Amino acid sequence: MVLATDGAADIIDHTAPSWPTIAGHNPDELAALLHRLRHWEATTGPTGSVLPRAKQHDDKTIAAVTFVRP
Question: What is the DSSP string of 2-69?
Fold first, then answer.
């Protein structure tokens, strides 16, 4: 399961790997993904012309949870 704030989810939907792929990410991969999202927002879409949004920057949080049967 992946939980993400809209600031991360909107850019992921526009640019990143699929949600099932992200669900398998480890903490380091999630941190790298957040870094890429922040970089994309700052360099590719800072004005919102590529991905329209209400504000230039938004918070970005992602959590991936794996359930294991006992």
Answer: EEE-HHHHHHHHHHS--HHHHHT--HHHHHHHHHHHHHHHHHTSTTSSSS--SSS-----EEE-----
